[in-house]
Amino acid sequence: MYKRQHLHLISLGNTKKILNLVGTTSKEEIIQIVANKISREGEGKWIFGRGWDQNDWPIKEFPTRWDLDSVSPKNPVVLTRIDGHALWVNTVVLKKAGITKETPDPEGGKIIRDPETGEPTGILIDEAMSLVEKVVPSSTYEERKEMAILASQECSSLGLTTVHDAGVNLETIKIYKELINENKLTVRLYVMLRWPGDAVNIYLEKGPEIGYGNNYLTIRSIKMFADGALGSRGAALFEPYSDDPTNTGLITFDPDKAFEIMKKALEKGFQVCVHAIGDRANRLVLDLFEKAFKSVPQVKDHRFRIEHAQVLTKEDIPRFAKLRVIPSMQPTHATSDMYWAEDRLGPERVKWAYAWKSLLNTGAKIAGGSDAPVESANPLWGIYAACTRQDHKGWPEGGWHPEQKVSRYEALKMFTIDAAYAGFEEKIKGSIEEGKLADIVVLSKDILSIPAKEILNTRVEMTIVGGKIVYQR
Question: Alpha-carbon distance 334 to 198, whole Å?
C-alpha cells in the first residue's frame, strides 16, 4: 500500500492546463513554445507555464524579460520555475505589477536586477513573486475543482492512496469537502493550512478536523516557509553559495511570529510542518521547535516536521531524532539536483545534503514524498531514487554519494508506514493489517526483489481506496 506525502494537489492539476516546461533544455526552446502558444491564443491573452530550470541549459544563467519580449510584446507571460520559488516574466507583466528599478526587494524575496542599470530583469525570487501574483487573473472556483479532480485521478493512477497537501487555504478546503461529498475525490487528503492566512487563525480557534467524509480529509497541520530553494539560490545557507559568493539565500518568515504560532499549535493540537532547505534555515527551525517544545512541555507526541530538510550540518542531523522531529524528504530532489548541487554547495557541504541514511542511522523516521509538481508524483521513482541515488539511465555508477543510499525496505517504509506516522495515521494506514483501511495498491512486480532498475518499469495494476477500485490499468 502506498501512502505518499507532501505534494500540492491543485498545483498538480493546474499543470494539466498550462504550458508544461519540464524537460526543456534551453531558454530558446521555451521562447518558441511561448511564441507558438501566443499564435494560438491571440494578442493580449495571459500565458502561463511551469517547469523551466536554468540548471538544465547550456548556459546556466537566469533568463530575462527581454528574452520573452521578443515574442510577447503585448501578451503578459508568467513562467514559474520548476521548484515554484521563482518567476520569469516579461516586461508587460512588470508594468502591470508596477515593478521598476526603484521597487525595493520585499522582505524574504529578491528582484533580480541588471548589474549595470539596476533594471529588474524579470526574475522574481520567493516573496518577490507576490508582487506579480496580485495582478495575475485568478482561475475560477469551478476551474480549481476541475484541477483537484484531475490531480486526484493522476495520483490514483500512480498508486497513491493518501497525499499530504502542503499549504491550503479556506477555499481549497471547501473544494475538497464538496468533492468528497460528491464522491469525486479518489485519494485521501491530509492537508496543511498555509501560514500566514485566515485558515490558520480560524482552525486554531476551532481545533483539528480529523477523518471528514469517511477518513477522506484531515486538517490538523500548519505549513510555514523558512527559506527558498537551492535551484534558485534562495535556500538559506550559513556560508555563501559556492557559485555565488555574495549570496547566502533568504529567510522568508519572521522567526518570532513563527514561534508564537508553533507554541499555539502545540496548545491546540496541531502539527507544524516547515519548509526548510538550506543548513541555516534547518538550524533555525530546529531551534524554534526546541524552544516551542520547552514552552509547552505537556505535549509529548507533537510530530513536528521539517519539509525537505535538504542541506544539513553534521551537528544538526542527530537533533531530528532527539527532538522527535520528522524529516519529510523527497528522494527525487537529490537525483534531479545532483548534476549541479556540488557547484552550489562545494565538496564538503554537499556531503550532508539529502542525507537520508545519516538521518535513519540516528533513529529518525523519514516521510517520503515528491513535492509534485516540482517532481513527478510517481512514488516508484522516489523509491528508486532513495535506494540507488541514480538517474533513470543508471548514472552515476554506484550512485551519487552512495553512503546516503537506503535499503529497498527502508525506502518502501518512507513511502508507507513512516509517511502514515508523519500524519498521525499509522493505526489506520501505511500497512495491510486487519482493522486498517482497505487502501491497497497492486503492482506488476515485487519491487523488493527485482533488480533496482526494473522498479522504473513496474506498473500500477490497480489502486483500491476504502475497498473501492479507483484505478485499474
Answer: 34
Helix (H, G, I), strand (E, B) or coil at 34: helix
Helix (H, G, I), strand (E, B) or coil at 409: helix
Q: Which of 415, 405, 425, 403 is nearest to 447 (CA)?
A: 415
> In this predicted model, what pLDDT tens digit does every residue of 279-305 receive, in sequence order?
999 999 999 999 999 999 999 999 999
Q: Give residue-wise pLDDT tens across range 213-231.
A: 999 999 999 999 999 999 9
The pTM is what? Answer: 0.90
Handedness of CA 22, 28, 30, 33 (dihedral sign): negative
Residue 51 host element (H or E): strand 47-52
d(CA 260, CA 473): 48
Please give the Cα distance from 44 to 55 (Å, whole number). 31
Segment 42-53, tens digit of pLDDT: 999 999 999 999
Q: Which amino acid is at 106?
A: P
Burial 373-408 (b: 16+ CB within 10 A, else e): bbbbbbbbbbbbbbbbbbbeeeeeeebbbeebbbeb
Parallel, antiparallel or unpaired: strands 120-126 and 109-113: antiparallel
DSSP 205-264: HH--EEEHHHHTEEEEEEEEE-B--TTTT-S--SS-BTTBTT----B-S-HHHHHHHHHH
| Residue 191 near residue 396 (C-beta atoms within 8 A) | no
Given CA atoms 192, 197, 203, 205 in this order, what sign does their dihedral have? positive
State the residue for C-alpha cell 518558441. 32
* 384 close to 445: Cβ distance less than 8 angstroms: no
Helices 170-181 and 198-206, interaxial angle, to 10°? 70
